[in-house]
Every structure is written in structure tokens, then in C-alpha cells.
Amino acid sequence: MNKRKQVQLPATLPGSPGVFGFFIYPFFLFHMLVFGLSGFFIAYAAPDAPVAMLFAHGGIAITVYLVFYLNFFGRDQVKWMLINAALGIFGIYSQIGWILARFGKRIGDYPWYVHVIPFLYYVLYTFLLRQLLLDLTGSRHDALRRRWVESAYVVFSMLVYATFLWRGRHLA
Question: Model-level pTM greater than 0.90?
């Protein structure tokens, strides 16, 4: 009977002294930025966005990113995606609205489903930034420090989003 061995990634935690180490951050930050921008342009470049293409392109990429996130960061860390999603609704609305205003457009100019892929990319990207912050501050395995860093992350995010909303309202 031929038994196959389960394949395991050498680095199960970001920043660990495995094969990947901190390489995963610049790689995924750049890679996701490119895919996120392409999803943004597919969604908002034309008045009639090719919704099927948007969901095919973005849906496949987001599914692949989720598989990588679960492998690299684990379930407990991925639950922060829900927190990022809650922050993301506020953040995305403020930031995408601000970006679209630069092109003479408004977030309300598009049906809700066009925003799904850009919103999901935003959540994935902010999750990755939080993981990087936990590793840069050395707070991943220090519960007290992690609580402070996570609290500062939420407060800072809310301040940035409120600023974008405020500026967007005054520029409109």
C-alpha cells in the first residue's frame, strides 16, 4: 500500500525563520496590489462594467489568496478578516469614494455588486498589512503587546477613514 505524505509549507508563521520568512509580505503586497488595481479598473473604468469578467477574475484570485492566508497565517489570524471587513466597509466607502472622485465619478454611480470585488481586495490587503504590523512590532506572540497594537491599528484606521470621508465631502 503506497501512502502519500502530506505536503507542508516550511513556514507556517509569517516572519518565522523558514524558507519564506518575511518574503511573503513584499511578494503578496505587490502581487495583490496589481490584482487589486486590475479589479478596480475592471469594476470602474467603463460605465457598464463587465460583471462576469470582474467576478471571474476577482473570484478566482481571492479564493487563491484565502488558501494561501489559511496556510501561512492559520484560522485564528484569518478571523481578523472579519474585523477588517467591518472596518473595510467604512474604509472602502471612504477611500474608493475619494479615489473615484478624482475621476469625476461617485460610488453611487455603480450598482452594489460592482463594488464586491474591490471591497474584498481591500479586506485582503488590510489583513496582510495587519499581519506585517504584528511581525514588525514583535507582538504576534506577546498577548499584551498584541492587544495594544491591534487597538492602535483599529483607532488609526478609523482616523484615516474619517479623514478620507471628511475630505471627500469638502472636495465634492
Answer: no
